[in-house]
Amino acid sequence: MDQAERDQWIQDYYARRFAESDRLTTRSANGQIEFLRVQQLVSSRLRESSRVLDVGGATGVHARWLAADGHSVTLIDPVPEQVAAAATHIPDARALVGDARDLQVEDGSVDAVLLLGPLYHLQDRADRRRAWREAYRVLVPGGLVFGAGISRAAAALKIVLARSFHDLPANALLALLEDGTDVRAIPTEGFPGGHHHSAAELTDEAVAAGFTGVTTVGIEGPAGLGLEMLPPEDSLVSAGLTIADAATAAPPIADLSPHLLAIGTRPT
Ligand SMILES: C[S@@+](CC[C@H](N)C(=O)[O-])C[C@H]1O[C@@H](n2cnc3c(N)ncnc32)[C@H](O)[C@@H]1O
């Protein structure tokens, strides 16, 4: 599948097949941990009243709290149905149809860019580089980028746990682990995928785009995969958060987390 076909599939998946609005709030303990950890990792680094560009913002799961916290938020997503939902539910944010590879935003005009989605839906490194470079271009010097990836190690474990292992071509898991090829995209339904990262690769991409001080952390931490199968009960969410927070200080285990987050700065 080439990127143009995948982009088409992304439209269909997010507009009709999957309710992205529920993913982080009601589905599992891990979903809530992902939401709370992203909120904590981002909000602790933002200055008051920042201009935030939420690229791949879907229906506004993060734009909502960012706007409520007093930031000026512009959400960009390629799926018009999601953008319309965000515009309806978050009147304080601007919501636009657009693509991470070609942002219709002025140079040096925002304080922070969230890339929480595009990087794992772009299968070619050249496209991911365009997304990183666009984030760099629109940021002010000193501005922050937050780029999320799906961990290829955690994805491989998930495939085995889900027992779809038997259905995979023999070399598929190795391809996933070696270069991030998204084997889950082989049957053409379900999650559109694109590319899975290692923590080191996500860091490299951010550095190659010019960002400095880059650090990549696991979002949900090493318990996240197991907690994806458990309900969003307070005690589970709280335990998972404690583990994820502790693991932030141990970069070598970031790859065990379902999602990774690279945080970097456009140099002054
Ligand atoms: C799993 S959702 C993540 C939503 C939200 N940002 C979050 O962190 O929960 C991935 C999002 O990336 C968007 N996306 C896919 N390809 C994109 C691209 N080339 N540029 C911008 N957004 C894209 C999808 O439409 C979808 O809304």
Automatic annotation (TrEMBL):
GO terms for biological process: methylation. SUPFAM superfamilies: S-adenosyl-L-methionine-dependent methyltransferases. InterPro entries: Methyltransf_11, SAM-dependent_MTases_sf. GO terms for molecular function: S-adenosylmethionine-dependent methyltransferase activity. Residues 53-146 form the Methyltransferase type domain. The lineage of its organism: Bacteria, Bacillati, Actinomycetota, Actinomycetes, Micrococcales. Transmembrane segments: none annotated. CDD domains: AdoMet_MTases. It holds the Pfam family Methyltransf_11. The keyword Cell inner membrane does not apply. Signal peptide: none annotated. This is Ubiquinone/menaquinone biosynthesis C-methylase UbiE. Keywords: Methyltransferase, S-adenosyl-L-methionine, Transferase, Ubiquinone.
